[in-house]
Design a protein that fits this description.
Layout lengths: L1 E6 L5 H17 L3 E6 L2 H10 L4 E8 L3 E2 L1 H9 L4 E9 L2 E5 L9 E4 L1 H5 L2 H7 L4 E4 L16 E6 H7 L3 E3 L9 E8 L8 E7 L9 H9 L4 E8 L7 E7 L6 H10 L4 E9 L8
């Protein structure tokens, strides 16, 4: 039995992603799973890092809101976790409330990512409502039962789970909204269509970043993503997170990583992985 940590509570997109991963494990490997809900993304990741859970399914980036800094920072700080798999969940936001009229709504709750992904709709339909960030898209739902002035931006499927009416749906600013999730665990995978890594630069000089990036070009390896995150050690000091379209077991990839060590500091390899199919939505 495999235990899978995720951001809760029940009805969150993270739970949907974890459920998809559990179905994939059962379908392809015959492995049964149990889901374990945590209040924050760092707590879910720490559960996998400590062995309290076998894996953590956590968001890494959204097509509108961008990257999830907690996931990147926690992965860098961990000495044990690697990326096992990658999956993409379509995001379908709805406005859940006991109110039957938008004019009565004074406060809207949701995760910061969800709020940012609905800003145009909120500006047009609830311009005076106070927006309050929560740890997940479903954390505030129990508060809505007896107050028509409150609303929450949540997954459509959460409306059925919590028995809360849907006043508006969908309210995504972009109908193609989707979130990518990583499956994190302690085993190290060497094969996959993509590999993720991160590093610091040895110094802040002209061309310092160009050198490692040129290596991928000269070796014929495509970068599908690059992002900087502050090290929190000094102003202007950054870590660079990169996804490449290459497998760790490829000799060319190994040769490139050896060259990369010569022009970077604290190079970390997070593993190779595939994108698994979404079975339920």
């Amino acid at each position: 039995m495999t235990s899978i940590a995720h951001l809760g509570p029940t009805g969150s997109y993270s739970e949907l992603a974890a459920t998809n991963y559990a179905h994939w494990l059962k379908k392809h490997h015959g492995i049964a799973s149990t889901l374990k809900s945590y209040q924050t993304i760092p707590k879910a990741i720490q559960a996998a890092a400590s062995g309290e859970a076998d894996a953590a399914v956590v968001p890494i980036e959204n097509s509108i809101g961008g990257s999830v800094s907690d996931t990147l920072d926690m992965l860098w700080e961990s000495d044990t976790l690697k990326i096992q798999n990658n999956l993409v969940i379509p995001i379908h936001h709805a406005l859940l409330t006991q109110s039957t009229n938008l004019k009565t709504i004074k406060t809207v709750y949701s995760h910061p990512q969800a709020l940012s992904q609905c800003q145009k709709w909120l500006a047009a339909n609830l311009p005076n409502a106070i927006q309050i960030a929560t740890n997940s898209t479903t954390e505030a739902l129990p508060q809505l039962s007896n107050d028509e002035t409150l609303a929450a931006i949540s997954p459509l499927w959460a409306a059925k789970l919590y028995n809360i009416p849907t006043l508006a749906d969908p309210i995504n600013d972009n109908p193609d909204n989707a979130t990518r999730f990583w499956v994190l665990g302690q085993s190290h995978t060497q094969q996959g269509s993509h590999t993720s890594l991160a590093f610091r630069l040895p110094d802040n000089t002209p061309g310092a970043l160009l050198k490692p990036l040129q290596l991928f070009a000269t070796q014929g390896i495509n970068m599908s993503r690059i992002e900087s995150r502050p090290t929190k050690l000094a102003l202007g000091d950054y870590r660079f997170f990169i996804d490449i379209e290459a497998s760790l077991d490829d000799p060319n990839t190994q040769a490139t990583l050896q060259l990369l060590k010569n022009c970077t500091l604290n190079l970390k390899i997070f593993g190779s992985y595939e994108q698994i199919e979404t079975l339920i939505s």
